[in-house]
Design goal:
The chain is α/β, with parallel strands linked by helices. The protein contains 13 helices and 14 strands. It has an 8-stranded mixed sheet, with helices on both faces. The chain binds zinc ion. Zinc ion binds next to loops.
């Protein structure tokens, strides 16, 4: 009896296992049907993203700057769609780029310190394109975007050796890869230039172009600028003018090299067939709010970056979009334009239908966060709309409200005068912070003494 029972039990268990196996098989087939990697269709465009690091939007000609810093980018912008207000999700390189590639806010991807790396499970733009059949190549000019942090994921070719090699060498690398490319599959190229990042020292003939009008002994390298940041010294007005001019010369140098890159694309017949995006990861401050360099505050000189999208054949050339968008919107936009679906994890939206005017952006709140070099990490937040910014410090629990239309340089805190609006925006910001949750678990890194020295030389470590 006991034996029979046991046999029946065994039989039942056997059936149960069979049903379970069938179930798993069916789920597997369904998952295969619905979640298999997408394939880029015939005619999928080549995609090029050019990031000119540390470039505040208001220092480009096409964004209204008074100096002729960017003649080549301006011409490129005239053939593309220019977003007048693009909010970066963080004011320094590492979290801003992780947001660009993962379409996640920093609180969600969790990479907000130099000793943290991208999680394996986060879906990255290059990886999605690679799985869809794109040939992929990335050329980066700073250690913070190296394979150590996981940025190589999805790239067939990824070159991250050296640092601040300069736009000339970076453009050479990209041209070399494009020239040697074989096969007919579409490609994705990420070209990262680091020139406007400190130290500001453009090569001739760009050095001195504007700075020689402001003679100064001050050398705008990271160490000297750090002395100003930490209030160990200040700038005389002529020194500040000199420093800004040196920064602009670096932009002009990179622009010139990009002119060479665009000329190559045209000559190789790739300019018109590609989707080309120009952007930056964050800006730079020059004492507008008491600081220099970047990383510790979220004023517009740090979080407003250029974003220009040139569609194949120069479609929609010259269009300007005044409404605010965000860096996390870039990946979903490009995927839609390439005929690919974005993963559900993406927090940005596709801007494709706003570019051609078939839909209108309205009332879109953007969020930015971080504080890398302050006393804490990731402790500042802002909620920004087309008109207002609510700026909050988690440590002090102080919030400020700025009217960006009437006071674009963010001088007058209106939080007392417009307490109702300040409260409303504070509540929206808090709701967003709660939805993003607490610190995410991300892989931590052990940096070598040489790597720490490298980060220190860039001002990313005290
Ligand atoms: Zn950067």
């Amino acid at each position: 009896m006991a034996e029979k029972k046991s046999k029946r039990a065994k039989g039942k268990r056997g059936k149960a296992i069979l049903v379970l196996c069938l179930g798993i098989l069916l789920i597997g087939i369904a998952a295969g049907l619905f979640f298999s990697p997408q394939q880029a269709g015939p005619g999928a465009p080549n995609i090029v993203i050019i990031c000119l690091d540390t470039l505040r939007a208001d220092h480009l000609g096409c964004y209204g700057y008074h100096r002729d810093t960017t003649p080549h980018i301006d011409r490129f912008a005239a053939q593309g769609v220019l977003f007048e207000q693009t909010l970066s999700q963080a004011p320094w390189t590492l979290p801003a780029h992780v947001s660009l590639f993962s379409s996640l806010y920093p609180s969600r991807h969790g990479v907000h310190r130099h000793d943290l790396a991208i999680r394996r499970r986060d879906k990255l733009f290059a990886d999605i394109l690679s799985k869809a059949g794109y040939a992929t190549a990335g050329f980066v000019d700073v250690f913070l975007l190296s394979r150590k942090y996981g940025f190589q994921r999805g790239f067939d070719t990824f070159r991250d050796e050296g640092e601040d090699k300069g736009a000339g060498q970076m453009v050479d690398q990209a041209i070399e890869w494009l020239s040697g490319r074989q096969g007919k599959q579409p490609f994705f190229l990420f070209l990262h230039l680091f020139d406007p990042h400190s130290a500001y020292s453009a090569p001739p003939p760009f050095s001195g172009r504007w700075s020689k009008k402001y003679p100064s002994e001050f050398r705008p390298d990271t160490d000297s600028l750090f002395q100003v940041r930490t209030k160990k010294r200040t700038f005389a007005p002529i020194e500040l003018a000199h420093v800004v001019a040196c920064y602009d010369e670096e932009i002009a140098y990179a622009d010139d090299e990009l002119g060479r890159f665009f000329a190559y694309l045209r000559q190789a017949g790739l300019y018109d067939s590609s989707l080309i995006v120009f952007l930056s990861d964050h800006g730079e401050e020059f004492l507008e709010h008491g600081g220099v360099l970047h990383g510790v505050s979220l004023y517009d000189e740090l979080v407003m970056v250029p974003l220009i999208v040139r569609l194949p054949q120069g479609r929609l050339a010259g269009r300007r979009i005044a409404e605010q968008v965000q860096l996390i919107d870039v990946a979903p936009t490009l995927l839609e334009l390439a005929g690919l679906r974005s993963p559900r994890s993406f927090q940005g939206i596709s801007l494709a239908s706003y570019m051609d005017g078939s839909a209108r952006l309205s009332g879109y709140s953007g969020f930015s966060e971080a504080d890398h070099m302050g006393a804490g990490h990731n402790v500042k937040r802002c909620l920004r709309t087309n008109e207002y910014k609510y700026y909050y410090d988690i440590r002090t629990r102080q919030g400020k409200l700025y009217n960006l239309l009437r006071d674009p340089s963010e001088r007058v805190d209106l939080s007392a005068e417009y307490s109702g609006l300040a409260q409303e925006m504070r509540e929206e910001l808090f709701a967003w912070m709660e939805s993003e949750g607490d610190e995410r678990r991300v892989p931590s890194l052990k940096l070598s003494a040489a790597e720490e020295r490298q980060l220190r030389s860039l001002g990313y470590l005290h």
